[in-house]
Write a structure and sequence with these properties.
Elements (H helix, E strand, L loop, with lengths): L1 H25 L3 H7 L4 H6 L6 H7 L5 E7 L6 E8 L2 E12 L2 E10 L1
Length: about 110
């Protein structure tokens, strides 16, 4: 009987802990989420071909996530493609490709 009470108490404690964490994460307001990654269309438009990765990271408030790496071999090309979350609609993002550390291509979706 005592073991059953201990097990039930443990289960209740674990459930309480899980619910508390969910409530904490739900407490973010729309503006908290909106401004967390506040790369705007203006920031995106400031990125020009030839800029370095460090210059882009400075403008975008942090490093991107590497999503592709291409080495054509023989020193022909070495491309890295990064993505950043942006301010705007759900899924707003920026994707930039660098060749030898310099911007060669950029795309954006849903920035405002």
């Amino acid at each position: 009987m005592r073991n059953k009470i201990i097990i039930i108490a443990l289960i209740l404690f674990l459930l309480y802990s899980a619910v508390s964490k969910i409530k904490e994460s739900d407490s973010e307001t729309f503006s908290d989420i909106y401004y967390k990654n506040n790369i705007t269309l203006e920031d995106y438009n400031a990125i020009k071909n030839g800029m370095s990765y460090d210059e882009v990271c400075e403008r975008f408030y942090g490093e991107g996530i590497l999503i592709a790496e291409t080495d054509l071999g023989l020193g022909l090309a070495y491309d890295l493609t990064y993505v950043w979350e942006g301010a705007g609609f759900v899924g707003a993002s920026v994707k930039i490709t660098f060749r030898y550390g310099k911007v060669i291509e950029k795309e954006q979706i849903g920035l405002i």
